[in-house]
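User: Sequence in, structure out. Go.
Assistant: Echoing your sequence, followed by the structure tokens.
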Amino acid sequence: MPLRTRSWAAAPTPRRIAYIVGVVLIAGGAAALPALAVAAIYREWETALHLGLTSALAVGTGALTLVAAGRPERLRPKDAFAGVAIAWVTVIAFGALPYLFSGSFGVTDALFESTAGFTTTGATVIVDLSGVAKGLLLWRATTQWLGGMGIIVLSIAVLPLIGAGGIQLARAETPGPEPDRLTPRFRGTALRLWALYVALTGAAAALLAFGDMTVFEAVAHALTSISTGGFSTNSGSLGAFSAYSQWVVIGLMVVAGASFTLHIRALRDPSEYLRKPEFRYYLMSLVIGVALVVGGVALDGVGVPVRESMFTAIATITGTGYAVTNYGVWPAAIGGVILMMMFIGGMGGSTTGALKTYRVAIVLKSAAAEVRRLTRPRAVSISRFGRVPLPTEVVSAVHSYVVVYMLAFGIGTILLLYVESAWGANMDLVTGLSAAASAISNVGPGLGTVGPASTYADVAGPGKWILGMLMILGRLEIYPIILLFTASFWRR
């Protein structure tokens, strides 16, 4: 009698999701080993034990999950979107374990720090980083590095366990438009993306080590610069380091804010940069943002060096949560500009958060086309992205996403203010608005009491949960999370 084979074409969605979660947990657990090695080098044996236990639990749980689930021959789009959402929540939970084991964090603070790490949001609840173990500091940086390019994309590249579903998973995780393939199979594309990511991280570490950073500091900041994360090893962030280090990081943020597939194509033909309309819009947004901040600071006589104003503008637009000065005390008009810049972001396919340059450009172009139609009703007005006409369905999809994004931001802000008031924190409107905007755009520092000179330590526990959810919504671009709460998804 022939053996029966498992038919994954008819397998239930939960088992497909479990498979994705298992793969991601193995990758996440293995990623804790470098931090464990650093803890051992600095003889932080307790931290090394915590990281080793976390790695063992994650890898062990992931392996058991894979055995129980089996390997699918293919993944359906809904499996991929739900699997990515649940995998991210699961790996964030495991990523919080080293903080919990240290005894210095409660459950809420540990989860907040882990969420800020994996979503590359530079928000933290740690008031004084000088007392944190080196191994734990590197784990913080590693979580941002994993989240920058995407732990799902890493799983596709490193673990040969995903078949035809690779592109579906990348589509669910990668911020921006449809993932750009560099090879026929997406695993080849994922390998090239991560190879470039590793190479740029190594180059960044070498450049920073030439300055006033130690090797450890250079590596940690390279991890969080290329990922546009913003976690620092110093409570003063990049303001604690030299002008050289700040200029290097400015360059790294600009590079990381562009599409990594574009970088790979440009290695063969640098003119690819000029041919990409979104890249031109990205540079334009950086130039305008820098001009507004630098000009505003100069006009108001704040007395801040141009380098620090430029750094602040670029760090905000690219969603890198570094700070070199306390811009929270700058005039309110500049604070308003910084708040608006939080929503822009870099290119699709970069490590940045927020709306992304292409969406902002499409919204502005469609608005301009609508104005032309109102002023010249008989004229045929077509929105273009570069020289390419924009299909109606693309414009509609972008408009829908922006509406959902701003709705999530608005609801998040209101809930945050209500919760803070109920817990006696009495958060002011500027702080609430900027905290919610910073969270959903994966920036980090906000304004008011969560500004660059402060942390999120004083935010009430329920408020941290709300901000954590906004971080995840922003990093996964909302829809994978919404899908989990859609009843029709769970029906066969």
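User: And one key feature?
Assistant: The beta strands are 384-385, 388-389.
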